[in-house]
Design goal:
globular, Rossmann fold
């Protein structure tokens, strides 16, 4: 049976400072590095998991999480594909702002709508702004009109699902037939988008789905990629970690 493992990067510097991060590129904290290594231990300890292929975003916190996780799991040599479509949601003009201060300024209801509603994006940044990704060399081959200036979750779904179909599904089919598993290391909102698609979560319910940092989430799939089972590995701390994420904006 094919297996898919989703892993949100370990705690980042801006996670620790409670700032909206989005596409801004920040590294991991020491705690984030520890979370990545702990994820590697969980993956290595499961005899049913034979990791063969990895997909990550282009952002450093996901790239380094994948490297540390694979190194700890004893698989630093696995082939890795990186793509901007797995990037975090672009938070527009909120990027760099403190979450609690933003909630105090605009009201918790407004910030919750920006953070968690399915179809309401935050205010956009302008082209040429420091948070416009068009000037970043990692996106030099992406058409400028495809690069976001802000996003709601619906926008993230619209860019993640084609990557799922075009890149991850073929790997699952090939590696699943060989008894192998696929690991995707990405971000809270790109993984929310993927889980929404895979599990058929409706637009209202997705508001309450939290993705904790550094805890692998495993799907066992049928040959047609229908879900047989799914859940956290080592899930004793998953609920507490998700609750901590939920309370970041007050």
């Amino acid at each position: 049976m094919p297996q898919l493992v989703l892993l949100r990067h370990g705690q980042s510097l801006w996670n620790a400072e409670n700032l909206f991060t989005g596409w801004h590129d920040v590294d991991l904290t020491e705690r984030g590095e520890e979370e990545a290594r702990a994820a590697g231990l969980l993956l290595a300890a499961d005899p049913a998991l034979d990791l063969r292929v990895v997909h990550t975003s282009l952002l450093t916190r996901a790239v380094r999480t994948a490297e540390l996780t694979l190194g700890t799991a004893g698989r630093p040599w696995l082939p890795v594909t990186r793509h901007w479509r797995l990037n975090e949601r672009h938070y527009g003009a909120l990027q760099g702002l403190d979450k609690k201060e933003t909630a105090a300024r605009h009201g918790e209801a407004q910030v919750k709508e920006w953070r968690r509603s399915y179809a309401t994006p935050p205010p956009a940044v302008a082209r040429g702004d420091v948070h416009d990704p068009a000037g970043d060399p990692r996106y030099r081959d992406v058409p400028a009109d495809a690069l976001p200036l802000t996003e709601c979750l619906a926008d993230v779904v619209a860019r993640v699902v084609p990557y799922w179909a075009d890149a991850i599904v073929p790997d699952l089919l090939v590696q699943g037939a060989r008894g192998g598993s696929v690991l995707v290391v990405a971000h809270g909102n790109s993984l929310r988008a993927l889980r929404k698609h895979l599990e058929g979560i409706d637009d209202d319910a997705i508001v309450d789905l939290e993705i904790p940092t550094g805890i692998p989430y495993r799907y066992v799939l049928g040959d047609d990629l229908s879900i047989v089972s799914h859940g956290f590995l080592g899930d004793a701390g998953a609920a507490a970690a998700a609750d901590a994420v939920r309370r970041q904006a007050g």
